[in-house]
Design a protein that fits this description.
three-stranded mixed sheet; alpha/beta; Rossmann fold; seven-stranded parallel sheet; 14 strands; 391 residues; single chain
């Protein structure tokens, strides 16, 4: 199939583009290099050396991966370029990664909050409006987040998108219905993903746009089989306080002998998935699309849940790193439980990469190999969630 990947130069977008190309799909990338610009703003580069996109695309062609198209514009701003591209390429599917993806970055200041809302919400709405205006039947696969549900203790497994409810009518009878599972976002970033859900629900109901929304856990790991084929293809490894996901940060800290920074008590439970499983999940979603007229299909794209302190202890056992409890910059409960239903992707054939299988190689093959590129000053998280935290 012909697939457009919005945000195809990013941490999840780039390995997804290569994977879909490798399995035979006709892939085109759209990107405005906003993630590369954030590196300049934050003065914090990827631990791994990231080649220019032109070099990446040439390398993929040279190692036998084939041709990937590239189109540079801002999906959140350049609506008519997006519409023109849809009319020119007439894609079967679009993978939507074109959103600012970091919760800490979204909470840095009023500017970063407004940028995240403007960029993420407009990108999603422009895409949906362009699909409708084009008159095409295009399947949208969107990378959402488990964070839309918050991290409180619900006492039940979080279902895949929908909750059956029973309400009492005025005459005393009961009415049953299914609603979107209630959201409880924990940052401006997570709030934009919540708004995405409502936009998808509306355009699905009103215009029958086919949508798969992948509520993804925290991604760990760096390489996929495709990005490992040439160093020019290597994926990002973010370790800084804004974009570094928690487990990758632990792995890098262990590699350079820096104490593992655990926020608060470490009793927060999170959902995780390896980057190799991310690209495989996107493929499964694309190759098993919803039928015309079917409501938005929601998958919980995660493979494991762990308390952060337990992750730190696991990395410490593997590497000998010390653990350092630091103040939590986030406005969240000190402890939480998290149980998640993820049967749908497993039923489609996902065979997950587990932490036990992949952690040590990630330390030795990536974190230690490129540790000389680390800037220790960028490790602490300095984005604070509340006014009280800033005082």
């Amino acid at each position: 199939m012909r697939v457009i990947i919005l945000g195809g130069d990013g941490f999840c977008g780039w390995p997804t583009a290569l994977h879909l190309s490798a399995v035979g799909h006709d892939v085109h990338i759209v990107d405005n290099f906003s993630r590369r610009h954030a590196d300049i703003e934050l003065e914090a580069s990827s631990l791994t050396p990231i080649s220019p996109l032109g070099t990446r695309l040439t390398a993929w062609r040279e190692v036998g991966g084939g041709e990937i198209g590239f189109h540079r514009f801002d999906v959140a701003v350049d609506y008519y370029q997006l519409l023109g591209l849809l009319n020119d390429l007439r894609p079967d599917a679009i993978v939507h990664f074109a959103e600012q993806r970091a919760a800490p970055y979204s909470m840095k200041s009023s500017y970063h909050k407004r940028y995240t809302v403007n960029n993420n919400t407009n990108a999603t709405h422009n895409l949906l409006a362009a699909i409708v205006e084009s008159g095409q039947d295009i399947h949208v696969t969107h990378l959402g987040t488990m964070g839309v549900y918050g991290y409180g203790t619900a006492g039940v497994k979080i279902p895949e998108g929908y909750l059956r409810v029973r309400m009492e009518a005025e005459d005393g009878t009961h009415v049953e219905s299914e609603i979107l599972y209630p959201t409880n976002p924990g940052s401006v970033y997570h709030t934009t993903k919540t708004l995405d859900q409502l936009l998808f629900a509306f355009y699905n109901k009103n215009d029958e746009v086919r949508v798969t929304d992948l509520h993804q856990g925290i991604v760990w790991g760096t390489q996929t089989p495709e990005t490992s084929r040439d160093e020019r293809l290597i994926n990002r490894f973010d370790y800084d306080g804004d974009y570094g996901t928690v487990l990758n940060r632990f792995l890098m800290q262990a590699a350079i002998g820096y104490p593992l920074t655990v926020h608060g008590t470490g009793g927060q439970t999170r959902a995780f998935i390896h980057i190799r499983d991310t690209v495989r999940c996107v493929q499964l979603a694309l190759e098993n699309p919803p039928r015309g007229g079917e409501r938005v299909r929601i998958f919980n794209q995660m493979t494991e849940t762990h308390r952060l302190i337990d992750l730190a202890k696991l990395v410490s056992r593997l590497t000998g790193a010390e653990i350092n409890l630091v103040d939590n910059p986030r406005n969240e409960a000190a402890e939480n439980d998290l149980r998640v239903d993820n049967r749908r992707l497993l039923d489609l054939g996902l065979d997950p990469v587990t932490l036990e299988d992949g952690l040590l190689s990630e330390v030795t093959d990536i974190a230690q190999k490129y540790s000389y590129r680390c800037d220790r000053d960028k490790i602490p998280c300095r984005s604070l969630w509340t006014r009280r935290g800033r005082a």
